């Protein structure tokens, strides 16, 4: 199993996104179309309920969420792990509903928001293993303080992978891996095993194409294990 084949496998799932609204096309519909998600629209009576989105995967309804909540995708929150005023419960619900759906043309900000949710979950559980691919070690430079906090305030084992173009500081419980890391260079990838509770497992895989990324995030323990395996075979 490779990171590329994981993205291909998730792309094979059948998703159906339906936007229920009255009036004109919504901004979130434009966002979804721009990120490779085909969304149908259905009319709501006016006056009627507020706009909402229904998501089906392989024919099964997996979530219904109000458009106002999903618009967090347009300006995703960026916070430090453990920040009590950081990510909202609404965004966490959004993270859950849209998991294992492949998005294209994702920005670095959007991926950083997803990464922060994974890091925050690891921080809250406080145990287990977190694997992170930074493409190059110099990309880790701006995140050193975040990962120092994760190391100092939890019992996590943290593994950082990246092409060796910078010498990172020694931090307790953080291991750096550079051998064969070139195969991670096109990818933004994280995997957290959930520690004592596999239901807390989560991960992200996205491949870079000309400064934009195509990929997915997941809460599925088996998929997270598959991501972790790609690290462990380096």
Automatic annotation (TrEMBL):
<dbReference type="InterPro" id="IPR016954">
    <property type="entry name" value="Uncharacterised_Vng0742h"/>
</dbReference>
<protein>
    <submittedName>
        <fullName>Sensor protein</fullName>
    </submittedName>
</protein>
<feature type="domain" description="DICT">
    <location>
        <begin position="103"/>
        <end position="208"/>
    </location>
</feature>
<dbReference type="InterPro" id="IPR019278">
    <property type="entry name" value="DICT_dom"/>
</dbReference>
<dbReference type="Pfam" id="PF10069">
    <property type="entry name" value="DICT"/>
</dbReference>
């Amino acid at each position: 199993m490779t990171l590329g084949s994981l993205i291909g496998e998730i792309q094979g799932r059948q998703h159906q996104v339906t936007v229920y609204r009255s009036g004109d096309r919504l901004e979130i519909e434009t966002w979804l179309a721009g990120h490779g998600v085909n969304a149908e629209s259905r009319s709501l009576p006016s006056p009627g309920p507020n706009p909402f989105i229904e998501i089906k995967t392989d024919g099964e309804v997996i979530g219904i969420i109000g458009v106002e909540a999903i618009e967090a995708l347009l300006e995703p929150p960026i916070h430090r792990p453990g920040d009590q005023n950081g990510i909202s419960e609404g965004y966490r619900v959004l993270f859950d509903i849209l998991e294992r759906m492949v998005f294209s043309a994702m920005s670095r900000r959007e991926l950083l928001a997803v990464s922060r949710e994974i890091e925050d979950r690891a921080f809250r559980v406080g145990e287990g293993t977190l694997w992170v691919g930074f493409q190059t070690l110099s990309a880790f430079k701006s995140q050193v303080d975040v990962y120092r906090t994760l190391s100092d305030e939890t019992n996590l084992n943290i593994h950082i992978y990246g092409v060796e173009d910078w010498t990172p500081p020694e931090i307790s419980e953080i291991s750096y891996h550079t051998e064969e890391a070139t195969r991670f260079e096109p990818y933004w990838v994280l995997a957290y095993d959930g520690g004592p509770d596999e239901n807390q497992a989560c991960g992200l895989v996205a491949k870079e194409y000309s400064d934009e990324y195509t990929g997915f995030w997941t809460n599925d323990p088996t998929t997270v294990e598959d991501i972790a395996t790609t690290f462990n075979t380096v």
